[in-house]
Design goal:
single chain, about 280 residues, Leucine-rich repeat, LRR (right-handed beta-alpha superhelix), 11-stranded parallel beta sheet, about 0% helix, about 10% strand
Protein backbone atom coordinates (compact mmCIF):
# COMPACT_ATOMS: atom_id res chain seq x y z
CA UNK A 1 0.00 0.00 0.00
CA UNK A 2 1.29 3.43 -1.01
CA UNK A 3 0.21 5.08 2.25
CA UNK A 4 2.78 3.10 4.22
CA UNK A 5 5.53 5.32 2.85
CA UNK A 6 3.90 8.42 4.34
CA UNK A 7 4.21 7.16 7.91
CA UNK A 8 6.46 9.59 9.76
CA UNK A 9 7.74 6.88 12.08
CA UNK A 10 8.57 4.35 9.36
CA UNK A 11 12.22 3.60 10.06
CA UNK A 12 12.65 -0.08 9.08
CA UNK A 13 11.19 -1.63 5.93
CA UNK A 14 11.85 -5.23 4.93
CA UNK A 15 10.55 -6.11 1.46
CA UNK A 16 12.88 -9.04 0.89
CA UNK A 17 11.78 -12.35 -0.66
CA UNK A 18 8.76 -10.89 -2.40
CA UNK A 19 7.67 -10.55 -6.03
CA UNK A 20 8.80 -6.99 -6.67
CA UNK A 21 9.93 -6.32 -10.23
CA UNK A 22 10.58 -2.65 -9.53
CA UNK A 23 11.19 -0.52 -6.50
CA UNK A 24 8.11 1.38 -5.25
CA UNK A 25 8.41 4.98 -6.43
CA UNK A 26 6.63 6.15 -3.30
CA UNK A 27 9.70 5.07 -1.38
CA UNK A 28 11.07 8.59 -1.63
CA UNK A 29 8.33 9.74 0.77
CA UNK A 30 9.77 7.65 3.61
CA UNK A 31 12.04 10.50 4.63
CA UNK A 32 12.99 9.06 8.03
CA UNK A 33 13.75 5.51 6.95
CA UNK A 34 16.89 4.04 8.51
CA UNK A 35 16.87 0.42 7.23
CA UNK A 36 15.72 -0.83 3.82
CA UNK A 37 15.95 -4.47 2.75
CA UNK A 38 15.03 -5.26 -0.87
CA UNK A 39 16.99 -8.50 -1.23
CA UNK A 40 15.87 -11.56 -3.21
CA UNK A 41 12.84 -10.25 -5.03
CA UNK A 42 10.62 -11.85 -7.67
CA UNK A 43 12.96 -14.70 -8.46
CA UNK A 44 15.77 -12.29 -9.30
CA UNK A 45 13.72 -9.86 -11.38
CA UNK A 46 14.33 -6.60 -9.50
CA UNK A 47 16.68 -5.02 -12.03
CA UNK A 48 16.80 -1.32 -11.22
CA UNK A 49 16.42 1.30 -8.51
CA UNK A 50 14.53 4.59 -8.96
CA UNK A 51 16.61 7.81 -9.03
CA UNK A 52 14.42 9.13 -6.22
CA UNK A 53 16.15 6.82 -3.77
CA UNK A 54 18.87 9.45 -3.44
CA UNK A 55 16.38 11.37 -1.29
CA UNK A 56 16.64 8.78 1.49
CA UNK A 57 19.30 10.90 3.14
CA UNK A 58 18.83 9.33 6.59
CA UNK A 59 19.11 5.73 5.41
CA UNK A 60 21.76 3.85 7.37
CA UNK A 61 21.36 0.27 6.06
CA UNK A 62 20.66 -0.77 2.46
CA UNK A 63 20.47 -4.48 1.58
CA UNK A 64 20.03 -5.43 -2.09
CA UNK A 65 21.42 -8.99 -2.10
CA UNK A 66 20.35 -11.43 -4.77
CA UNK A 67 18.88 -9.01 -7.32
CA UNK A 68 20.11 -8.87 -10.96
CA UNK A 69 21.10 -5.21 -10.97
CA UNK A 70 23.53 -5.68 -13.87
CA UNK A 71 22.51 -2.51 -15.70
CA UNK A 72 21.92 -0.42 -12.58
CA UNK A 73 24.78 2.07 -12.11
CA UNK A 74 23.74 2.81 -8.52
CA UNK A 75 24.31 6.52 -9.04
CA UNK A 76 22.06 7.16 -6.07
CA UNK A 77 24.61 5.85 -3.58
CA UNK A 78 26.92 8.91 -3.28
CA UNK A 79 23.95 11.03 -2.16
CA UNK A 80 23.00 8.63 0.66
CA UNK A 81 25.53 10.10 3.04
CA UNK A 82 24.18 8.50 6.22
CA UNK A 83 24.80 4.93 4.99
CA UNK A 84 26.66 2.71 7.44
CA UNK A 85 25.89 -0.72 5.92
CA UNK A 86 25.72 -1.57 2.21
CA UNK A 87 25.15 -5.17 1.12
CA UNK A 88 25.33 -5.92 -2.61
CA UNK A 89 25.99 -9.65 -2.52
CA UNK A 90 25.18 -11.39 -5.81
CA UNK A 91 23.98 -8.29 -7.68
CA UNK A 92 26.11 -8.69 -10.83
CA UNK A 93 28.55 -5.95 -9.82
CA UNK A 94 31.45 -5.36 -12.22
CA UNK A 95 34.10 -2.65 -12.51
CA UNK A 96 31.79 -0.67 -14.80
CA UNK A 97 28.53 -0.58 -12.84
CA UNK A 98 29.74 0.81 -9.53
CA UNK A 99 30.06 4.55 -8.78
CA UNK A 100 33.58 5.87 -9.43
CA UNK A 101 33.65 7.53 -6.03
CA UNK A 102 31.94 7.02 -2.68
CA UNK A 103 34.18 9.27 -0.62
CA UNK A 104 31.18 11.28 0.58
CA UNK A 105 29.93 8.21 2.47
CA UNK A 106 32.01 9.02 5.51
CA UNK A 107 29.95 6.75 7.80
CA UNK A 108 30.02 3.62 5.63
CA UNK A 109 31.58 0.87 7.76
CA UNK A 110 30.23 -2.45 6.40
CA UNK A 111 30.34 -3.35 2.69
CA UNK A 112 29.45 -6.73 1.18
CA UNK A 113 30.28 -7.19 -2.50
CA UNK A 114 30.66 -10.96 -2.41
CA UNK A 115 29.49 -13.28 -5.20
CA UNK A 116 29.91 -10.78 -8.00
CA UNK A 117 32.08 -10.41 -11.13
CA UNK A 118 34.84 -8.14 -9.86
CA UNK A 119 38.34 -8.69 -11.27
CA UNK A 120 39.92 -6.16 -8.94
CA UNK A 121 38.99 -4.15 -5.88
CA UNK A 122 36.77 -1.23 -6.99
CA UNK A 123 38.56 2.11 -6.68
CA UNK A 124 35.63 3.62 -4.82
CA UNK A 125 36.32 1.38 -1.81
CA UNK A 126 39.76 2.81 -1.09
CA UNK A 127 38.45 6.23 -0.04
CA UNK A 128 35.92 5.09 2.60
CA UNK A 129 37.33 6.61 5.81
CA UNK A 130 35.20 4.56 8.23
CA UNK A 131 35.38 1.16 6.53
CA UNK A 132 35.63 -1.65 9.09
CA UNK A 133 34.19 -4.76 7.44
CA UNK A 134 34.69 -5.64 3.78
CA UNK A 135 33.53 -8.84 2.10
CA UNK A 136 34.88 -9.40 -1.41
CA UNK A 137 34.69 -13.19 -1.38
CA UNK A 138 33.61 -15.21 -4.42
CA UNK A 139 34.75 -12.81 -7.11
CA UNK A 140 37.54 -13.06 -9.72
CA UNK A 141 40.06 -10.72 -8.08
CA UNK A 142 43.61 -11.49 -9.20
CA UNK A 143 45.60 -8.87 -7.29
CA UNK A 144 45.35 -6.17 -4.63
CA UNK A 145 46.46 -2.58 -5.06
CA UNK A 146 48.99 -0.92 -2.78
CA UNK A 147 46.13 1.48 -1.99
CA UNK A 148 44.83 -0.98 0.59
CA UNK A 149 47.04 0.75 3.14
CA UNK A 150 44.29 3.39 3.24
CA UNK A 151 42.04 0.92 5.07
CA UNK A 152 43.41 1.99 8.43
CA UNK A 153 40.22 1.08 10.32
CA UNK A 154 39.39 -2.23 8.62
CA UNK A 155 38.92 -5.04 11.16
CA UNK A 156 37.50 -7.82 8.94
CA UNK A 157 38.66 -8.49 5.39
CA UNK A 158 37.22 -11.44 3.45
CA UNK A 159 38.99 -12.26 0.18
CA UNK A 160 38.15 -15.96 0.05
CA UNK A 161 37.34 -17.70 -3.25
CA UNK A 162 39.18 -15.36 -5.58
CA UNK A 163 42.22 -15.76 -7.85
CA UNK A 164 44.91 -14.19 -5.67
CA UNK A 165 48.46 -15.46 -6.04
CA UNK A 166 50.04 -12.94 -3.66
CA UNK A 167 49.32 -10.22 -1.12
CA UNK A 168 51.07 -6.83 -1.26
CA UNK A 169 53.27 -5.85 1.66
CA UNK A 170 50.90 -2.90 2.17
CA UNK A 171 48.47 -5.29 3.86
CA UNK A 172 50.86 -5.33 6.83
CA UNK A 173 49.91 -1.70 7.52
CA UNK A 174 46.31 -2.59 8.43
CA UNK A 175 47.01 -2.27 12.13
CA UNK A 176 43.36 -2.69 13.20
CA UNK A 177 42.86 -5.92 11.24
CA UNK A 178 41.41 -8.73 13.38
CA UNK A 179 40.09 -11.22 10.81
CA UNK A 180 41.71 -12.06 7.48
CA UNK A 181 40.04 -14.69 5.29
CA UNK A 182 41.94 -15.97 2.24
CA UNK A 183 40.46 -19.43 1.69
CA UNK A 184 40.41 -20.92 -1.83
CA UNK A 185 42.87 -18.69 -3.63
CA UNK A 186 46.21 -19.55 -5.28
CA UNK A 187 48.58 -18.32 -2.59
CA UNK A 188 51.95 -19.93 -2.01
CA UNK A 189 54.69 -19.14 0.52
CA UNK A 190 56.17 -16.36 -1.63
CA UNK A 191 52.73 -14.79 -1.91
CA UNK A 192 52.50 -14.04 1.81
CA UNK A 193 54.45 -10.94 2.91
CA UNK A 194 57.19 -11.65 5.43
CA UNK A 195 56.03 -8.72 7.55
CA UNK A 196 52.61 -10.19 8.23
CA UNK A 197 53.59 -10.40 11.89
CA UNK A 198 53.08 -6.65 12.11
CA UNK A 199 49.34 -7.34 12.29
CA UNK A 200 49.44 -7.30 16.07
CA UNK A 201 45.64 -7.29 16.45
CA UNK A 202 45.07 -10.28 14.15
CA UNK A 203 42.82 -12.89 15.80
CA UNK A 204 41.78 -15.08 12.86
CA UNK A 205 43.86 -16.06 9.82
CA UNK A 206 42.21 -18.48 7.41
CA UNK A 207 43.98 -19.61 4.25
CA UNK A 208 42.57 -23.08 3.59
CA UNK A 209 42.71 -24.58 0.10
CA UNK A 210 45.70 -22.69 -1.25
CA UNK A 211 49.18 -23.74 -2.43
CA UNK A 212 51.10 -23.10 0.79
CA UNK A 213 54.09 -25.31 1.51
CA UNK A 214 55.26 -23.07 4.36
CA UNK A 215 53.98 -19.99 6.18
CA UNK A 216 56.09 -17.01 7.27
CA UNK A 217 57.62 -17.33 10.72
CA UNK A 218 56.37 -13.82 11.49
CA UNK A 219 52.77 -15.07 11.38
CA UNK A 220 53.54 -16.67 14.73
CA UNK A 221 54.38 -13.25 16.14
CA UNK A 222 50.74 -12.16 16.06
CA UNK A 223 50.16 -12.24 19.82
CA UNK A 224 46.35 -12.30 19.69
CA UNK A 225 45.98 -15.04 17.08
CA UNK A 226 43.21 -17.40 18.20
CA UNK A 227 42.25 -19.18 14.99
CA UNK A 228 44.72 -20.40 12.37
CA UNK A 229 43.17 -22.40 9.52
CA UNK A 230 45.56 -23.89 6.94
CA UNK A 231 43.84 -27.11 5.90
CA UNK A 232 43.96 -28.36 2.29
CA UNK A 233 47.36 -26.91 1.42
CA UNK A 234 50.73 -28.52 0.67
CA UNK A 235 52.35 -27.83 4.02
CA UNK A 236 55.52 -29.73 4.85
CA UNK A 237 56.11 -28.09 8.24
CA UNK A 238 55.22 -25.07 10.38
CA UNK A 239 57.52 -22.58 12.11
CA UNK A 240 58.75 -23.73 15.52
CA UNK A 241 57.37 -20.47 16.88
CA UNK A 242 53.89 -21.93 16.39
CA UNK A 243 54.32 -23.24 19.94
CA UNK A 244 54.46 -19.71 21.31
CA UNK A 245 51.00 -18.69 20.13
CA UNK A 246 49.64 -18.62 23.64
CA UNK A 247 46.11 -17.51 22.66
CA UNK A 248 45.56 -20.13 19.96
CA UNK A 249 42.21 -21.96 20.23
CA UNK A 250 41.88 -23.48 16.75
CA UNK A 251 44.76 -24.81 14.65
CA UNK A 252 43.41 -26.59 11.58
CA UNK A 253 46.06 -28.27 9.42
CA UNK A 254 44.00 -31.19 8.12
CA UNK A 255 44.55 -32.56 4.63
CA UNK A 256 48.22 -31.62 4.43
CA UNK A 257 49.51 -35.16 3.84
CA UNK A 258 53.23 -34.26 3.98
CA UNK A 259 53.04 -32.11 7.09
CA UNK A 260 55.52 -32.81 9.88
CA UNK A 261 54.85 -30.71 12.98
CA UNK A 262 57.98 -29.05 14.42
CA UNK A 263 59.26 -30.17 17.81
CA UNK A 264 58.58 -27.89 20.70
CA UNK A 265 61.73 -25.85 21.39
CA UNK A 266 63.38 -25.97 24.79
CA UNK A 267 61.99 -23.35 27.18
CA UNK A 268 65.25 -21.47 27.36
CA UNK A 269 65.00 -20.70 23.66
CA UNK A 270 61.62 -19.01 23.99
CA UNK A 271 63.10 -15.55 24.48
CA UNK A 272 64.58 -15.61 20.96
CA UNK A 273 61.13 -15.65 19.37
CA UNK A 274 60.34 -12.14 20.53
CA UNK A 275 63.26 -10.65 18.62
CA UNK A 276 62.65 -9.14 15.17
CA UNK A 277 65.69 -9.86 13.03
CA UNK A 278 64.25 -8.18 9.94
CA UNK A 279 65.87 -5.04 8.58
Amino acid sequence: PDDIFKLDDLSVLDLSHNQLTECPRELENAKNMLVLNLSHNSENRLESLPPQMRRLVHLQTLVLNGNPLLHAQLRQLPAMTALQTLHLRSTQRTQSNLPTSLEGLSNLADVDLSCNDLTRVPECLYTLPSLRRLNLSSNQITELSLCIDQWVHVETLNLSRNQLTSLPSAICKLSKLKKLYLNSNKLDFDGLPSGIGKLTNLEEFMAANNNLELVPESLCRCPKLRKLVLNKNHLVTLPEAIHFLTEIEVLDVRENPNLVMPPKPADRAAEWYNIDFSL
